[in-house]
Model the fold of this input.
Amino acid sequence: MAKLNSIADLKKLRADLQAQAKAKTDKPLVNVSLATCSVASGGRDVMEAMKAEVASLGLDVNFMQSGCMTYCYAEPTVEITLPGKEPVVFGFVDTDKAKLLVQKYVKEGELLDGVIPVGYERVVL
Amino acid sequence: MSEKKQIRIATRNSGFIDPENIDSYIAAGGYLALAKCIEEMTPAQVIDEMKASGLRGRGGAGFPTGVKWGFAAGYKSDTKYVVCNADEGDPGAFMDRAILEGDPHSVLEAMAIGGYAIGGNKGTIYIRAEYPLAIKRLKIAIEQAEEKGMLGKNIFGSDFSFDLDIKYGAGAFVCGEETALINSMEGDRGEPYTKPPFPAEAGYWDKPTIVNNVETLAAIPAILTKGASWFNQIGTETSKGTKVFCIVGKINNVGLIEVPMGITLKEVIFDVGGGVPNGKEFKAVQTGGPSGGALTFKDLDVKIDYEGLAACQSMMGSGGMIVMDEDDCMVAVSKFFLDFTMEETCGKCTPCRIGSKRIYETLDRITMGQGTMDDIENLKLMSTVIKDTALCGLGQTMPNPVLSTMRVFEDEYRAHVIDKKCPAGVCTSLLEFVVVDEKCVGCTLCAKVCPVDCISGKVKEVHVIDQAACIKCGACLEKCKFDAIIKR
Amino acid sequence: MSMLNITIDGKTTQVPAGSMILDAAKKLDISVPTLCFLNLDVMKYNNMAASCRVCVVEVEGRRNLAPACATPVMEGMVVKTNTMRVLLARRTVLELLISNHPKDCLICAKSGECELQDLAETFGIREISYPGVMSTFRKDVSPSIIREMDKCVMCRRCETMCNEVQTCGVLSGVNRGFGVVVAPAFEMNLEDSACTNCGQCTQVCPVGALVEHDHTLKVIQALSDPELVTVVQTAPAVRAAIGEAFGMEPGQSFTGKMAASLRRLGFDHVFDTDFAADLTIMEEGSEFLDRLQKFLDGDKNVKLPIMTSCCPGWVKFFEHQFPELLEIPSTAKSPQQMFGAIAKSYYAELLGIPREKMVVVSVMPCLAKKYEAARPEFAVNGNPDVDIVISSRELGHLLKRMNIDLSKLPDEDFDNPLGFSTGAAPIFGNSGGVMEAALRTAYEVATGETLPSVEFESVRTLTGVKTAEIKVGPHTLNVGVASGLGNARELLEMVKSGEKQFHVIEIMACPGGCIGGGGQPYHHGDMEILKKRNQVLYNEDAGKPQRKSHENPYIVELYEKYLGKPLSEKAHHLLHTHYFEREKM
Done:
């Protein structure tokens, strides 16, 4: 990987990366929180269950892992972004609910219980 | 301020980016601040910007970060160190782990900025070995940052170089104190030494060293990207920006929150935290972990910032918030925290080593119903002197749980001592298990389950518990189907 | 150096930058109580743990109280040392300390010398407001030192001594919380550690946590057994200090009174280790000349420098720390062990008694000598050459117990033949003394000429490491002298790396040599005492008619009648030893 040599290099890389990300927004994005506490409460199983369900339904979905989503009380938590929609965070997800999320929300756009409201303003750089 | 109570600055990326992929961080504006510092600012300008931001140390003591950097920059030395204190150890606090696991690059970026500002080329992250996932992600992050030229030689093509390594702590609470941390990093016993000299003058290997906490560092790239004047709009006169808290205990929304300084306790507990579960009354919240103190139902309008908490005999601390309701006994809570510090004191100085033990013993006597009024006076005296004489922050703050709970709940202490009662019904030695005559149907279940056979009564007659023989195990209360046994 | 203004209790003074509040207070004659703090400039020892918190003072503008011992003076500082807040804090801290300290002062070895006891008295502490459980540790008894860590106040003085001055690294703080204690690694027994038994830890321990292993009762038992012939020897440094135990001014020679006191105790023969010091020079000096000659002749199997082996702390130190250098030290036994070997052979034969009937008691400034006497190689069929070793401190106690007031006694002489010595012997007690004594004899034996001046000033200071070039005939000898094991390490590293070629090196484990020994009366931090003891021994030397070991007529007689000549087979058998490799930890 080439080293970045200036702020201009960095800004260009960022613009490229943002463009790549934007290009992917035509597909649903599933973001599973995988911090220590999320993993301990079953986050990895949730990730696997959702991937399996997506495969069995033949859907085209992007997955990513992230760190702590801050909702300890509702772990494991999953954030799903459907094309053209705001991200939605679902809490209290277990493997059964993971499958349901794929079947209902990812595929059909149909909301399920356990949606965690956004109570913060995120600073974006 | 928007209607949303939280503003996520230090935790801006956690949960949104892939912590194991540097591109994910760069796409979110990562390393812009470092690039800006190196290309557009002198080290002195970086320090001025940090001072102007008003950022204070988030590890607990709240020392202005820019001032600390300025001190270290002022000392001439061939080598200077930037140390990240990731030895998080307060019971119920995990914000540093969350940041390291969710956004490790923000910490690396800030450390490099710190190195640039003070004229140092080496950084070390001192992290407790109990955080394996954070360590793994940090290692990946360091490797990726080196590949991209954000760490290592000639960062962004400049003549500034900065190398990072990781050192592991063995889980001693006191090693979060910066001088103990430095001793531990050097391979010595993890115990504090007396300051001055401050680490900024003579720290790691006696070289000028800045020790900054994870959360402090995580906020820095945002501050330098968006500017000091953006950051210092948030917060109060003396405390700028936001603070991350781990809100746990008797609260509905257990979790991590990041709120602007100056938010009231009421907003935190009821708006952000969702209030106390099961319809119970909010009683108090322990802030600052074992070094902090209790804010109570009387303090709901207190504005949370460094000075506001100190005025309540508590402290900001690293940001643990343990919420207690009417079922919690404040004497038992103090005892819990003193038990922690008593075990964790390094034992170096007299007030902390012996004082913590004596305070614990006194609290223990009180919860056992063996306390005297002298004990209450001695608690106050010992606590005051320990605060005044202990060597390091751990010792100086160790009596806070006692002093702060006494401030509002001295009656509860007195009830234990004078009436031999625990009003919250927690201290077992002071409880009685009794049969409510009207409810008892004489089913004999309680008598059968009693391990010491102290319940007597014939079938279909009211049973009686022999208080002298009862060991207060509570088995009868659990067993009774008719709510005919109560503790009081 | 820039000077800073400071006001303490309304009085103003100036102190150099870098001074602590305590220094400034001293300058103003304001006495601030201390416990953990100890500064021994001669030894480059400075314990600034700031852990006891007894010396706290109020500093204007500071949130909490400051330890006077470790808080640097800042320009314009205003300090108060006796406000209500300060006094209450000190008292509470002391009460806390004492609440975790055994109250059995009556049966404590440090009673009367204990700094905590003094503080309790000063603060008028009559009851403990905060009683509670006490931290307890097992008692650890080594041949030389007893650790009773129940009494430890965590001042860390011993640790600083053991690690920074002596570089033995045996003692350090272990555990945490209330269970914290200063101990060897894994809390092993001191005996099993790399402890050299130097006893400097007992010199600095403010309480009774570290004390000598007392053997006075054994002495009384031996003296009261009519079947036994009791022989006593006293090391050079004891005579420079024993009077201090009786409140006499340091700096006088107590030799005559000490000899008288030992006779009053009932010893059958009052002899002197100084005699054996002269004997040591004969053996060690000859060994040196022998090795030097071979070395100069190009013999590759001969290693230089030769190093002295009088000091058992030093011997154990190199056995642990420099096992690769085991070939270098002289094989000559220490004077104590030479004395024992000669007493139980030559002298027992003169008396016509079996060695088992003779009890040899040593009075030493040293705790390591107890360990040395117990080393198995220094015994014949299980009967040790030296039976009992007591320290100067123990002799003081013993005399008092036996109703003997040393200060009131007349001066008496030692008995002969094993009580006569030359001026070369008493200076063994000073760092550099063995070197000087050896040079006096080596010079004359090697050159056949008379020394123009017997005093080698270049090795006579209290400096930790001394090096000099000495002309002996056609040769220039590089000599090195170190006292204190940290200084010894410095010299040894030079030898190991080949940085400097020394011909002869003298090492004493205790800073200043035996006058500063671990078994001497407590100096309580007053380093002037060491300087005075040092002078006493040089005066003793100057006052002797003979000043070179080979001029000792009884030594000449011993060789003529019994040993033959130095390094003879018999001399080897009785007066030489060998060393063992030991573990680093």
